[in-house]
């Protein structure tokens, strides 16, 4: 009886260890993309059963954690600079750095009962909220927007700075400030107040890149999820949640024996843009 119990315990322990090591995907994701990634994981799991561990923070914070050995498998950043740096430092798998979405910035007021615009900031004298420009790409885009509007000198000492864009969202929602900069994805999910999409020409393009990390414990699953995010079905979810589709450059291929007809130039990998 004792031997049977010991054997059963060993089998359970081995099964648990195998499941944990082989079927868990550790995702580090920039705060702006926390809600979309949950929906994408749900869709991916329909064909690839696994458990996920999602760590949400600003891009800058996650980048520093990865540099110091944080055990993530895949990193979804809100910019391209940190993924480029990780590649230069030899911390990612070769060919596994690509753009998965183009972010959009919005101005939001949770307390306004009417439509708002950027012009409202010209006559507003209170404080506004934004994520920290030095650690959060959306915070940097907010700063650049204020500079483009010649309003940075007016507001740079009146900013309530959040550690990431989710914290900024909560600051605005609580009524601590009347206006603040959030992602367009967050604006689409907001139930109160009013907001406005900011023209991308007012700030640098929010090209969001992802990388599979070299020290990933589950490289196979990480690369499959990476490739899934570039499929039409995933890109439709991404655009539905407030982003522009990824700008991807296909790998150069050998020319085919026959010259393609002009009508064949668009292939099946073309991404459909969903109106939002």
TrEMBL record:
Q: Which stretches are tagged as biased composition: Basic and acidic residues?
A: 253-264
Stored Gene3D superfamilies:
Periplasmic binding protein-like II
Q: Which domain of life is it from?
A: Bacteria
Q: Which UniProt keywords apply?
A: Metal-binding, Signal
Signal sequence range: 1-22
Q: Where is this region: Disordered?
A: 249-268
Q: Which InterPro entries match?
A: AvModA-like_subst-bd, ModA, ModA/WtpA
What transmembrane ranges does the database entry give?
none
Q: Which family does the entry's similarity section mention?
A: Belongs to the bacterial solute-binding protein ModA family.
Q: What is this protein called?
A: Molybdate ABC transporter substrate-binding protein
């Amino acid at each position: 009886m004792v031997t049977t119990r010991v054997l059963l315990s060993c089998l359970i322990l081995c099964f648990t260890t195998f499941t944990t090591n082989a079927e868990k995907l550790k995702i580090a994701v920039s705060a702006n993309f926390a809600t979309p990634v949950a929906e994408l994981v749900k869709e991916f799991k329909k064909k690839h059963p696994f458990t996920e561990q999602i760590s949400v923070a600003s891009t800058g914070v996650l980048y520093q954690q990865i540099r110091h050995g944080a055990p993530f498998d895949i990193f979804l950043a809100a910019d391209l600079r940190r993924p480029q740096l990780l590649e230069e430092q030899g911390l990612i798998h070769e060919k596994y750095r690509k753009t998965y979405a183009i972010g959009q910035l919005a101005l939001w007021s949770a307390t306004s009962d009417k439509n708002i615009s950027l012009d409202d900031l010209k006559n507003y004298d209170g404080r506004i909220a934004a994520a920290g420009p030095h650690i959060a790409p959306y915070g940097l885009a907010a700063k650049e927007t204020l500079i483009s509007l010649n309003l940075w000198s007016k507001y740079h000492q009146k900013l309530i700075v959040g550690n990431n864009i989710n914290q900024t969202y909560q600051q605005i929602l609580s009524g601590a400030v009347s206006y603040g900069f959030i992602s367009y994805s967050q604006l689409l999910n907001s139930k109160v107040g009013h907001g406005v999409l900011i023209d991308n020409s007012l700030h640098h393009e929010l090209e969001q890149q992802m990388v599979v990390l070299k020290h990933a414990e589950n490289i196979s699953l990480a690369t499959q999820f990476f490739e899934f995010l570039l499929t039409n079905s995933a890109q439709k979810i991404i655009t539905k949640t407030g982003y522009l589709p990824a700008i991807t450059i296909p790998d150069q291929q050998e020319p085919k024996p026959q010259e393609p007809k002009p009508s064949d130039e668009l292939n099946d990998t073309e991404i459909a843009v969903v109106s939002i």
